[in-house]
Task: inverse folding
């Protein structure tokens, strides 16, 4: 099955 | 200070109602361009981004940047005290302890005022890059809601595949499989029923239905929804509001095998 990724992994922290 | 008057309290009520199950405590960032909110859900899978532009208010005044840290359950309790047709004015001082909400009935002389205590919220702010999406699908928001609800009866996840032939939502679960395919469609008499698919390259991605069904609580805000997809990046689900204001949801994909 597929794993859920995290949104923070795609968008940089400010 | 902030003073922002909305013609219809219902707009803010619907926005908060749509996001309150996803995010609990949020900063409403106010400046001269309007009122913005960005927050991740607790599991950091989804991101809510709301922008109510200054033009959505009349009048709108905000002299300096003010962050209003508000618990959405508290805000919803107060917004429920407004009639849908009431005029809503948000007010806050420059370094506020409370935000003041005034509801005015356009039909009677009733005026109600509420203060909500503010919270200090230390929230991570994420930079969302400008993205040229490989596929942009515009469709009726009620149709998207129906597809998500229907497929959730069978599975936790949905595969969204956009090709030149159309967009396919498919799932597989313990009891079997399901799929809904939409093709580009133009309804001259009812343009809100149009399905538009703009594609620069085929896309296939998998997402959790639990989150998508949650996003669909915003369906009452707009008759259409825009889905923006590119391979291996979060899905953007956008509900457009009047005056270029918007409510956007981003959802991280499921990857691997």
Result:
């Amino acid at each position: 099955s597929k794993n859920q990724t995290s949104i923070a992994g795609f968008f940089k922290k400010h | 200070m902030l003073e922002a008057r909305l013609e219809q309290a219902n707009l803010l009520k619907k926005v908060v109602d749509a996001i309150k199950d996803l995010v609990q405590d949020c900063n409403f960032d106010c400046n001269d361009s309007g009122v913005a909110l960005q927050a991740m859900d607790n599991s950091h899978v989804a991101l809510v981004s709301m922008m109510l532009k200054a033009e959505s208010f009349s009048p709108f005044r905000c002299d300096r940047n003010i962050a209003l840290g508000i618990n959405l359950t508290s805000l919803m309790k107060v917004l429920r005290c407004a009639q849908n047709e009431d005029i809503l004015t948000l007010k806050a001082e420059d370094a506020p302890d409370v935000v003041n909400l005034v509801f005015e009935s356009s039909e009677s002389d009733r005026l109600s005022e509420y203060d909500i205590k503010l919270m200090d919220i230390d929230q991570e702010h994420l930079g969302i890059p400008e993205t040229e999406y490989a596929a942009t699908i515009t469709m009726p928001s009620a149709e998207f809601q129906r597809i998500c609800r229907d497929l959730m009866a069978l599975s936790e996840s949905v595969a969204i595949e956009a090709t030149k032939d159309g967009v396919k939502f498919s799932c597989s679960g313990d009891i079997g499989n399901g799929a809904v395919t939409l093709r580009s469609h133009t309804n001259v008499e009812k343009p809100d029923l149009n399905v538009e698919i703009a594609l620069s390259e085929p896309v296939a991605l998998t997402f959790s239905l639990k989150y998508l069904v949650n996003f669909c609580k915003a369906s009452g805000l707009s008759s259409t929804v825009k889905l923006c997809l590119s391979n291996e990046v979060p899905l953007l689900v956008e509900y457009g509001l009047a005056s270029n204001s918007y409510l956007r949801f981003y959802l991280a994909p499921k990857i691997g095998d």
